[in-house]
Every structure is written in C-alpha cells, then in structure tokens.
Design a protein that fits this description.
355 residues, alpha+beta, D-amino Acid Aminotransferase, Chain A, domain 1, D-amino Acid Aminotransferase, Chain A, domain 2, 7 helices, 19 strands, globular, binds pyridoxal-5'-phosphate, binds 2-OXO-4-methylpentanoic acid
Length: 355
C-alpha cells in the first residue's frame, strides 16, 4: 500500500468552528471534540483512502454488527504542545501495534501503519489550534474501529470503519483515587480478550464499578478470575505497588493490557536505579504490607490517567490508607514522563515524536 500523503487524504473542512465556545482553562476529560474527525472505510476487502470530515453523527444501519456483536476496538493517545507550541506524540507506533493486536483478536481487519500514523498527523495539523497549552492538559486522541457491515449472522462483518476523534482534555481523575479490590466479578480470563482494547471489556466493568462507586470508591482493582488473589489492573490503568523501596507490577498476560505508560515507568525506574519486580503480587501480600507499614504507595498508570496515586484501598470491608509521602515514586515518575511528553527535557529513550 502506497504512502498516504496529506494531499491524498481528502479533507472536507467544517464551515464553522466550535473552538470559541470551548473553555480551555477548565477542560474535563474527553467531553468536547474538535471540529474534524478522520474516517476510513473498509469495503470489498480493502481500506479506502482516509477522509477528514467535519465532526458529526454517523449514518449506520440498525443491522450493523457493531450493535449486535460488539466488534469494536479503540486506542487512547495524547498530543502535547511544548512552550514553542510544537506538537508531540508519545510512542505512537506502540499504539498502532496494539491497535492491530486488538483488531486481530476481534476478527477486525488490521489497519496499515501509514493510515493510522499519517492520518493522525494530518488530523492533528488541521486541528493544531485545538491542542491545549495549559499545564496538565493535552489533546486526547481516540482512534477506534468497528463493524459497520450488516447482518444478524453471528460472524465477522465484511465492512468496517476506522476513525479518529480528538478531545482537548484535562485530568481523568480529579484527585487521589480510592479503590476497591474486587473479589466477585472479573474483568478478564485466560484465553479471553483482556489484553485487547475491545469496547466490551469496558462495558463489562461498568456494573461492578457502579457498585464500588455506591460504596464510596472511584475504581475497582481487578484480581485474577480464578481465586481473586492476584492484583491485576484497574479499569483504565495498570497498577504499581511500592513495598519498602521496591516497585512491583503484575506481568502482562492474556488478562492484562500491555500499557505503554506501564512499560515506560518500568524503563524510567530501571534508569533511576529503582528496584522493579514484574511478578505476581497477591492481595494478601499487599494487605500484610499495609498492616506492617511497609506498603508505601499504590498508583495507577495509563495514557488518560497519567499517574494517579491511590489514597485508599478497600478489601473485605476494611479500608487501608496509604501514607502521604514527599518525593513519592508516583510524583517522580509523573514528572519524568510528562517532562518527556511535553518536551521539557531530553528524551534519552527516543519516545517523543514531533509532528
Ligand atoms: N489498562 C487498561 C484496561 C486500559 O484501558 C489502559 C488505558 O489505555 C491501560 C491499562 C493503560 O495503558 P496505556 O498506558 O497504554 O494507556
Ligand atoms: C486511555 O488511557 O487512553 C484509555 O484508553 C482509557 C480509557 C478507558 C479512558
């Protein structure tokens, strides 16, 4: 497939812009959308040329398979502006790679790298003015792909849409996060789709998370589906636990998303000579450490959530508070990673990509 230059991505510009109505000083997460979106159709066994069109509703047949069988995947990325208003992405090829891993698992055709990356760059260039500059804000990027082809037969569709929408965004969590260790419901299982960013993975979490919210928590921490004994990840974040000065996180598997923030933190920690253990960590170990006072930190890591410190975890009716630490690992990693993302520091890992 040939390279798609900006010139052959067709662009239909919006006649008006909504940008003047946006309060860039008070952005929530993912709730306002820029003027344009990218749409690319898969028909007759091939991807058509991507189009950038005004952001707006889609026309789909009620029998489109997305509505019935949930064939749908997505990614989460961000674009950052530095002090000179240059624009950067963070490890975008890793998102493309993971998108296709998700696509394969959901029997959706893979999207070529140049469609994903060049399409995104063209869209970001067009929406440059929409990329926030305020500290802590960024342009949240949502690439997604779903079955637009029709049919009630429970089998993969023959038509798909790949799309990218942009949402200038502030923080995902307003403050520290209070989590509940889940022991009844499961997010994923061996041989399942937990490692894919499939829409249904998130829908399946909503009900147990609602129950946790009713009890005063913000998020659920998922444990393994067999014994509910191993800490796995949170709804939209990988989880790190600091016991004494060792940082521990679960190994990725069929059940756990291979987070880009997670693997960046592991590399930064190793570079900072922080001891990292990628291993199974049990709930009992964490509860014991909390009781002994050796549990120093727990935090979530993800593109949307960045690094979100956990203030309290609940387990079998007891709440365990985490200490407030000066120079926490969470604060060190947050600074190191966001300094790279916003081009405030040298990027010795080669993660930053200038648009
Ligand atoms: N785990 C889940 C279930 C997620 O949805 C996300 C968000 O993308 C993550 C972990 C973190 O992944 P990343 O750091 O690549 O955003
Ligand atoms: C992200 O961190 O980008 C995600 O995809 C999580 C999302 C569910 C908000």
């Amino acid at each position: 497939m040939g390279k798609i230059a900006d010139t052959i991505i067709s662009i239909e510009k919006s006649k008006t812009s909504k940008i003047a109505q946006v309060d860039f000083d008070n952005l929530a997460f993912g709730s306002v959308y820029s003027d344009h979106m990218l749409v690319c159709d898969y028909k007759n066994g091939a991807w058509e040329v991507p189009k950038i069109v005004p952001y707006g509703p889609l026309m789909l047949n009620p029998s489109a398979k997305i509505f019935h069988y949930g064939q749908s995947i997505f990614e989460g990325m961000k674009a950052y502006k530095d002090a000179k208003e240059d624009i950067y992405l963070f490890r975008p090829l890793d998102n493309h790679k993971r998108f296709n891993i998700s696509a394969k698992r959901m029997a959706i055709p893979e999207i070529p790298e140049n469609y994903f990356i060049d399409g995104l760059k063209a869209l970001l260039k067009l929406e440059e003015q929409w990329i926030p500059t305020k500290e802590g804000s960024s342009m949240y990027i949502r690439p997604f792909m779903f079955a637009s082809g029709e049919g009630f037969h429970a089998s993969p569709a023959n038509e798909y849409k790949f799309m990218i929408c942009l949402a200038p965004s502030g923080a995902y969590f307003a403050g520290k996060v209070k989590v509940l260790i889940e022991e009844t419901y499961s997010r994923s299982a061996n041989g399942g789709v937990g490692y894919a960013k499939a829409g249904g993975n998130y829908a399946g979490q909503f009900y147990p998370t609602q129950l946790a919210i009713e009890k005063g928590y913000n998020q659920v921490i998922w444990t393994d589906d067999v014994h509910h004994e191993n800490i796995e990840e949170a709804g939209a974040m990988n989880i790190f636990i600091r016991i004494n000065d060792t940082l521990i996180t679960a190994p990725t598997s069929d059940r756990i998303l291979d987070g880009i923030t997670r693997k960046s933190i592991i590399d930064i920690a190793l570079d900072e000579n922080i001891k990292v253990e990628v291993r199974t960590i049990t709930v009992s170990e964490v509860v014991e450490a909390a009781k002994k006072g050796t549990l120093k930190e727990m935090f979530g890591a993800g593109t949307a959530a960045v690094i979100s410190p956990i203030s309290t975890f609940g387990h079998r009716g007891t709440d365990y508070d985490l200490p407030e630490l000066e120079n926490s690992y969470a604060s060190i990693f947050k600074k190191k990673i966001t300094d790279i993302q916003y081009n405030k520091t040298e990027d010795k890992f080669g993660w930053r990509v200038k648009i």
